[in-house]
Please model this.
Amino acid sequence: MWGEEGDGKEVKQLYIVPFKKRHYFCTAKKADHSTVFAVRYKKMIISREQYIEALLKKRWNGKVKIITGIRRCGKSFLLSTLYKNYLKSEGVSEDCFIEIELDRKVNIKYRNPNELYEYVIGKTHDENKRYYVFIDEIQLSYKVKNEGVDESMVPEEDRDMLYTTFYDILNDLITRSNLDIYVTGSNSRMLSKDIVTNFRDRGTEIKVYPLSFKEYYAFSGLEKADALEEYLMFGGMPLAVTEKDEVERRKYLAGLHKNVYIKDIVERYKLKDDEVLDALIDALSSAVGSLTNPHNLANAAGTLMKRNTSDHTIKNYLDYLEDAYLFMGAKRYDVKGKRYFENTQKYYSMDLGLRNAKLNFRQQEKSHLMENMIFLELVRRGYSVDVGVVEVTRVRDSKKQQSQYEIDFVVNTGQEKIYIQSALNVDTEDKQNQETFSLKNSGDFFRKIVIVDGNSKQWTDENGIVYIGVIPFLLEDTVLGF
Model:
């Protein structure tokens, strides 16, 4: 068997072997760092430069780098392959990397934080060397009860202090000046929401998302319009993007829901069955781009299951889905009243391919898919995003009538806001007026943008509203002016 390595070297015999959770062509039956290279050539590897730059800015900053995101979005590959290869290109030697993958059976004992601590200490004993410590899927680490403690002397509110957790051992390890520590995790409740509290300001988060359209387009080799259609259909999960067979791509995305995400949530929260969870995901997937609340979702899920479920259960399950990064919520914000509505909000899927696969690739309303895609792009760029509401009072038949009009996205940039409307087109005067009515009645002078389908260049109307095609918006980071 003949093959060609990514650097152009020719090899005679290749073996397909598992390595780092993937299968590779190798020059030996056992893979190691000197013999392995990807089945795909180097030019096929998606570099994810945005995240490499973020990691480089934070290295050796005295904090634990916490890389979070939905499972299978490429966190492990980013850390153990892309980032590691960059560091090695700078001259960091192989023996300066300490890597522990907690989701592998061979490493189960290191889920005990005390065992993990001893392993790292044992591997980094040379104080004259600087080590990079990579710990994958840290949320699988469990807490261990401390021995020799008189529990009767511990107040009820301090019972958590009876246990050693991964937070404790990481807080200890990061004090060692020759260790730079990176962890990946797939549960926001255990990580993102607790960084300040549990890491005592010694943790910094880097959020990783599925591939952006910009990353997908650079990899795809397609024309822009064709790439957009494929992206709207199959999304940006890395292994789905690199799979060229459409049937296998569909199978992979559908399998992620059943075999990874739902299974994870059921096991983590000890759910009795997955029927309610599965129905809720279907209901949310059907409702992207639509305002909803736990009561409406309970009704929708109940209809799908043909049995009732409570609003309280649905609210808990919504939290589970957000913690697993499967969906993201956007709160409803009163633009004029400067307050949030408590009862309704929108939920967006973290990846369009996952959303479409869950619905068996039905319900392909492009307006909703485009809105979901724009939302993800905005949060990927680091913005806080709300759903805007403008209340307008009109006089009809001598009576005042108050109506609410939606602004798809209120983008918070710090001191200012940007209002964004997603529209397939504004090709008639009536359509343009319909899409811009809420923007014109916002009562302020913040920037206003309408994103339309296609590749149209940026232009501005007489009211100062900017129009731009979704393709240049996705490909040009400077469109928002920040």
In short: The two ends are 52 Å apart (CA to CA). Confidence is low (pLDDT under 50) at residues 1-29, 31-43. The longest strand covers residues 399-412. The chain is about 35% helix and 25% strand.
